[in-house]
Amino acid sequence: MTDAIRVNAVQSQATQSGSQVVNRVQPGGSSFADTLAQVEGLRFSNHAQKRLDDRNISLPDDGIQRLNEAVEKAKARGGKESLILMDDLAFIVNVKDRVVVTTMDAKQRGEGVFTQIDSVVFADKAEASVKTADNQ
After folding, report:
1. Within 10 A of 16 (CB to CB), how many other CB atoms are there?
2. Dihedral pair phi/psi, residue 8, rounded to 5°
């Protein structure tokens, strides 16, 4: 069973690009901002943070790590504005600035049409088991 990280507002700090790194309390006592700092500066814009709050969207325990890995994949392939799909969540990310521009879940994606993106990345979970010579 995976417990989702529930994002609850505590305090926000403005950054140079106008986005926020928002301090959020997660289970275990570390803040959401601390978690974001651990993933090489991945930030959520004011708009994206508001969407998380308004839409009551929770990230899975490994969500930030999977999102960061997906941004790295997009960057390696030359992506600039990417749609990152993770479970039933969708994130539009400015890859160069490492900013999540907006986010939505399956209920809020409307007609399912995304414009002004140049790439799509699936943020799949890591494989649960590693293949060995015996089970190939």
Report:
1. 5
2. -125, 135
Q: What residue ranges do the domains of the chain occupy?
A: 41-124
Can you point out the beta strands (E) in the chain? 9-14, 20-24, 43-44, 81-86, 89-94, 99-105, 119-122
Encoded tokens for 96: 């160069």
Instruction: Of 58, 51, 44, give the one whose Cα is nearest residue 101.
Output: 44
Spatial distance between the Cα atoms of 10 and 55, rounded to a whole number of angstroms: 17
Distance CA 125, CA 63 (A): 9
d(CA 18, CA 61): 27
Q: Over its length of 136 residues, how does the chain's per-residue pLDDT go in tens digits?
A: 444 444 433 334 444 445 444 444 444 445 555 554 454 578 999 999 999 999 888 888 889 899 999 999 999 999 999 999 999 999 999 999 999 999 998 888 778 889 999 999 999 886 433 333 444 4
